[in-house]
Amino acid sequence: MTFVKPLLDFIEKSPTAFHAVENICSELEASGRTRLTEGEKWALEPGRGYFVTRNMSSVIAFDIPEGEADSFRMIAAHSDSPTFKIKENAELSVRGKYTQLNVEKYGGMLFSPWFDRPLSVAGRVVVRTEKGVEARLINVDRDLLVIPNVAIHMNREINDGFKYNAQTDMMPLFGDDTAKDGFKKLIAETAGVPEEDLLGTDLFLYPRIKPAVIGNSGEYIMSPRLDDLECAWSGLRAFIDAEKPDRGINMLCVFDNEEVGSGTKQGADSTFLYDVMQRICISLGLDPEASYRAAASSFMLSADNAHAVHPNHPEKTDAENCVFMNEGIVIKFNANQRYTTDGVSAAFFHKLLKDADVPCQHFANRSDVAGGGTLGNISGSHVSINTLDIGLAQLAMHSVCETAGAKDVEYMVRGMAAFYASRVSIGRDGEFILG
Ligand code: CO
Q: Which residues have a Cβ under 8 Å from the Cβ of 208 and sit 6 or more positions away?
């Protein structure tokens, strides 16, 4: 369970995608990788590692092998989680007595768990500088807000089911009438700038819940944002620790905006990954023929959490293609290819995990349930390489606090490390050569 504490510490200090990416970058830097920017010329050297961010909320890290690069091995995960974004005109007054924050949904969350708990605000502010403008991360980092429930006495039927309205039911209480015009002041103070220098914001709510280890023998973990920071962190750990292959380029891609369809300049549906791969090939002097060959022998693990069988509602999952916490890496299948796994990629990964002695299990939705999408097939429309969808089993996905298996973190890190250390090349179509 050595990975549980560092994972939970990472999630706790990553209240937004911006913070998650900043924390990933700090670990990459501490491990000796060099930060690049998209605006500078890249001169990549064999045997060294690099990383580059876009929008401060997506990051791609890569290690250049000592030998001639002949393939890419990538792990993709996402940095964002469903939450509420604070609107530009941030305040609402109620009967002149209350000040609320005006928020809108980011992604598809369960509403009810957001009620009656301390919330805070974190994200990015953009401030005036002498040269122009500059973005900085902030975290108010104190118990600040609450979205109060309506008392049972005022809505006796609520336990028979209730349809929440995002505009009327979900506004957090920020303070009394003296809090009016106080939000911008608070944010400027937190950023350490005068109010007039605060020119832009991307601010989100987050729950003030401390991650916990629970269960009779400590077998479960509870935390906000396990989807998908659990996979992002496991990928980071594996990327940093993995044995480096002599010819393959290892990559870690953590994309923002998966929860809203990935269609942003920094999302999995952008050119970010393609651009980075192209620039690696150019910098290493690979001719177009060599870069096509490298792409053909490349592989991506698209890692995003999966639904464990629910203890109160086991009927919600397929009778056999269902997964449990602490039983290993989940390989996801979907006939309509919302998950990219196919027979060939599954066989390759099964063999890899078996050789590494890491357990795995298989997930497919009930045939009458659509299920959620993820990164793999979206990214695949820009960079069309062999891909497999994996994840870890968890409960209460997109709740304010989710539950997963304590043992699974290690399985994921070991499975991903085995993938990074593997040597894969494509033979004839439908054949992977390992080793
Ligand atoms: Co996810």
A: 117, 118, 119, 120, 143
Kindly report, residue by residue over 14-28, the tens digit of the pLDDT: 999 999 999 999 999
Ranges of each domain in the chain:
4-81+224-434, 83-207
State residue 205 phi and psi, 5-degree precision.
-80, 150
pTM of the entire predicted model: 0.96
Class of domain 83-207: mainly beta
Crossing angle (nearest 10°) for helices 408-421 and 343-355: 100
Q: Give me ligand 1 centre to Cα 398, in Å.
A: 8
Distance 226 CA to ligand 1 centre (A): 9
What CATH architecture does domain 4-81+224-434 belong to? 3-Layer(aba) Sandwich (3.40)
Q: For 197-227, how does the pLDDT look when each residue is reduced to its tens digit (9 = 90+)?
A: 999 999 999 999 999 999 999 999 999 999 9
pLDDT band at 425 (very low <50, low <70, confident <90, very high): confident
Q: 165 C-alpha to center of ligand 1: Å?
A: 24
